[in-house]
C-alpha cells in the first residue's frame, strides 16, 4: 500500500482530501497545528495516522510516495524541510487535484462571487440525472457530504477555483493549475485579501486562467462585468466564449416562475444574484449533457426547497 503524508491538515480542504485519499486505498498520515480532540478522533476513526498536535519531521520516511503541502505551510516548516532532505515528491493541493482529474472533464468555477451557488446548482442537476462526478471544493456545499470526492468511475470533475497563492514552494496561483475544459468566470472584485497587490495583478491571474483552458474548451462568463467581458473577448480562437446574464422570470398569481421555451417553472429567488448564477450553471450543465428542460426541473425543485 502506497504511503502519503499531508502537511497542515487543519486546512479544511486538506482534511477532506486526506479522507478522500485514504478511501482510494492509500496509507495516509497527516500533521497540523491546532488539531482538536474532535479532529484527532475523526482522523483515527477514518484510518488516517496522526501523531498528535504539531510537527513530527522524524516520522517522515523515504518510503512515502508523495507529500501534499497545505497552502498555509511556510518554507521553514520542519516537515517540509525533512521531506526535501529525503528527496520526497512534494505536491501542492491544486497540483495533486489536477493529477487525479487529468483524464476527466474538468469544470472549474472561478471569480469573486457566486461560486458556491453555481456549484450547488450544477451538483443538483447532475444528481437528478444520476451523472457521477468528482469534486474538490473550498466551500461547503449542503448537497455534498464533504469538500472532496475522488473516484475512478466518474468522468466529470467539478473544481472550485481559488485565486490565492498555491504553497510555500509554488508562487503561482491555484487557478493556474486546473486547465479546465469548461470554465465559469463570474465577476472580478479585487481586494488586498486576494494575495494580489493591485487590481491589475488580480486581473492578470484570471487572464492566465482563461488562457489555460484546454484546446476546444468553453469559457462561460458573466456579461455584466466589463472586466470579465473584455477578458472573454481576448481568449484564443479555439475557445468558445459563452456569455450569460440574468434569467427571465414572470409573475403569476403572486408567484414567480422561470420563463422558458419548455414552459414556466416555479422558482424561489433567495437573493438578487440567484437568476444570474442559474444561467451560468445551466450553460455548464448543457455542456455536460444535461438538457435544459431537465436542468430547469431540477433547479425549480432545488430553489423551492430553499424557501424558509
UniProtKB/TrEMBL annotation:
One of its GO terms (molecular function) is acid-amino acid ligase activity. InterPro entries: Mur-like_cat_sf, Mur_ligase_cen, Mur_ligase_N, MurCDEF_pg_biosynth. It comes from the Bacteria. Residues 17-97 form the Mur ligase N-terminal catalytic domain. The keyword Ligase applies. The keyword Ligase applies. Keywords: Ligase. Residues 109-238 form the Mur ligase central domain. This is UDP-N-acetylmuramate--alanine ligase. It comes from Parabacteroides merdae.
Amino acid at each position: 500500500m502506497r504511503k502519503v503524508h499531508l502537511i497542515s491538515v487543519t486546512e479544511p480542504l486538506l482534511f477532506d482530501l486526506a479522507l478522500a485519499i485514504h478511501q482510494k486505498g492509500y496509507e495516509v498520515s497527516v500533521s497540523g497545528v491546532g488539531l482538536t480532540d474532535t479532529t484527532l478522533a475523526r482522523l483515527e476513526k477514518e484510518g488516517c495516522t496522526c501523531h498528535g498536535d504539531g510537527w513530527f519531521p522524524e516520522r517522515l520516511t523515504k518510503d512515502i510516495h508523495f507529500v501534499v503541502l497545505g497552502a498555509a505551510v511556510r518554507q521553514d516548516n520542519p516537515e517540509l524541510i525533512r521531506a526535501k532532505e529525503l528527496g520526497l515528491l512534494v505536491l501542492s493541493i491544486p497540483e495533486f487535484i489536477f493529477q487525479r482529474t487529468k483524464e476527466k472533464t474538468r469544470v472549474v468555477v472561478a471569480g469573486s462571487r457566486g461560486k458556491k451557488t453555481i456549484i450547488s446548482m450544477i451538483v443538483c442537476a447532475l444528481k437528478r440525472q444520476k451523472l457521477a462526478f468528482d469534486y474538490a471544493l473550498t466551500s461547503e456545499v449542503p448537497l455534498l457530504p464533504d469538500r472532496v470526492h475522488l473516484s475512478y468511475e466518474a468522468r466529470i470533475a467539478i473544481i472550485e477555483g481559488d485565486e490565492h497563492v498555491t504553497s510555500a514552494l509554488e508562487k503561482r496561483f491555484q487557478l493556474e493549475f486546473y486547465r479546465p475544459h469548461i470554465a465559469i468566470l463570474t465577476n472580478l472584485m479585487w481586494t488586498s485579501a486576494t494575495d494580489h497587490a493591485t487590481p491589475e495583478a488580480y486581473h492578470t491571474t484570471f487572464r492566465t486562467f482563461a488562457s489555460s483552458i484546454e484546446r476546444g474548451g468553453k469559457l462561460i462568463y458573466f456579461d455584466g462585468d466589463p472586466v470579465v467581458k473584455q477578458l472573454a473577448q481576448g481568449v484564443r480562437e479555439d475557445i468558445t466564449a459563452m456569455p450569460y446574464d440574468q434569467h427571465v422570470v414572470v409573475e403569476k398569481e403572486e408567484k414567480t416562475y422561470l420563463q422558458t421555451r419548455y414552459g414556466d417553472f416555479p422558482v424561489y429567488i433567495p437573493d438578487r444574484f440567484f437568476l444570474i448564477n442559474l444561467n451560468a450553471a445551466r450553460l455548464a450543465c448543457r455542456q455536460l449533457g444535461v438538457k435544459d428542460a431537465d436542468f430547469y426541473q431540477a433547479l425549480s425543485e432545488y430553489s423551492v426547497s430553499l424557501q424558509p
